[in-house]
Amino acid sequence: MILVSACLCGMNTRYDGENNSNEKVKELLKAGKAIAVCPEQLGGLCTPRPAHEISGGNGETVLDGNAKVVSKDGIDGTTYFIKGAEETLKIALEFGVTSVILKAKSPSCGFGKIYDGTFSKKLIEGNGVTAELLKRNGIKIQTENDIANGYTLED
Question: What pTM, to 2 d.p., does this model score?
Answer without folding.
Answer: 0.95
